[in-house]
């Protein structure tokens, strides 16, 4: 998993000076807060952004900021970050803004396996990974002319749901599609949306064990608040609204904590387990946080419409623990869990297994 270049860099690190670094955005406050709780230093990379709001949250303010004007300049920070014994924690915005290619070649140790980005960034490889792991996904419709039920049309990349639209037939599809962007068409699954936040540790041995080693945790669950679809029903039927020029949109604006029926937990662990085991077969394994984004139907079927292979912003409601993580360790957030895994990696002399 770890490249020779990164392996060499991390071998030179002084474990007592390790610094958790990330881009000031997305889940950075949780990541810095978690590092602090674990006694690690933290560093925020601020790209042309006001960082004063961190002063309002002293426990989530990084020990130090590095400021640059443009995302392209992050590449030039590699030596500076390495000199501070930095380990990058990639989050959705980090990879999206820096660019997957640039991030792939960035010579600073990064938490987790970067190989996963190639599988995550493309919806067709995601589908290959998950379905070959036996996970149920919404049916894909390859030719728009075959639309025979409500579908959701999505564009590539993690854009927080921006641009996705519903179509009920080919005519509606044609009216709304932007052919200049790559898109996929999925059956619209009716049900409740739950986003499960997992953490796979190759290092720990106590817990929900996987066949190939390591343990799987499920730290929390959220549902995204999406504007305007979540509130649209208050204004009348969607047909009527369309006539008035209101169309449903799926722009993520916030996150709401969730607990699920306890009887669904075996299925939730089965899905996480299969996802990790298949990732080991396909590309040397997923490490650390990932999320399965699902819809639970009234038949209690869980359909996964997407995977995120890094910390997701849906973990942010749980900076001081969740109803699940509190049963592992009191006050455990995903950000804190990442810091713990970094520390454990150094303690066990196995840090190369959790960075790349
Ligand atoms: P995505 O871009 O895959 O994150 O999808 C954006 C939003 O669309 C999600 O947060 C869900 O609310 C919704 N969604 C995605 N896929 C489906 C689906 N197959 N059926 C119903 N809703 C979906």
Provide the list of bound ligands, each named once. Answer: adenosine monophosphate
Count of runs of 4 or more consecutive helical residues = 12
Distance between the termini: 6 Å
Portion of residues in helices?
Answer: 25-40%
Counting structural domains, the number is: 2
Tally of DSSP β-strands? 13
Q: Tell me what the CATH architecture of the largest domain is.
A: 2-Layer Sandwich
**So what's the oligomer here?**
single chain
CATH homologous superfamily name of the largest domain?
Answer: ATP-grasp fold, B domain
CATH fold label of the largest domain: D-amino Acid Aminotransferase, Chain A, domain 1
The structural class is: alpha+beta
Spans of 5+ residues with little confidence (pLDDT < 50)?
Answer: none
Summary, kept brief:
By secondary structure, the protein is of the alpha+beta class. It has twelve helices and 13 strands.
Question: How would you sum up this structure, described in words?
Answer:
The protein is an alpha+beta fold and 356 residues long. It folds into two domains: 4-135 and 191-226 and 255-353, ATP-grasp fold, B domain (D-amino Acid Aminotransferase, Chain A, domain 1), CATH 3.30.470; 139-188, Dna Ligase, domain 1. Helix content is 29%, strand content 23%. It contains twelve helices and 13 strands. The strands form three sheets. Strands 8, 9, 10, 11, 12 and 13 form a six-stranded antiparallel sheet that branches. A four-stranded parallel sheet has the order 3-2-1-4. The chain has a three-stranded antiparallel sheet with strand order 6-5-7, with helices on one face. Strand 9 and strand 10 form a beta hairpin. It starts with a helix and ends in an 8-residue tail after the last helix. Bound molecules: adenosine monophosphate. The site of adenosine monophosphate (AMP) has 16 residues, from strand 5, strand 10, strand 12 and strand 13.
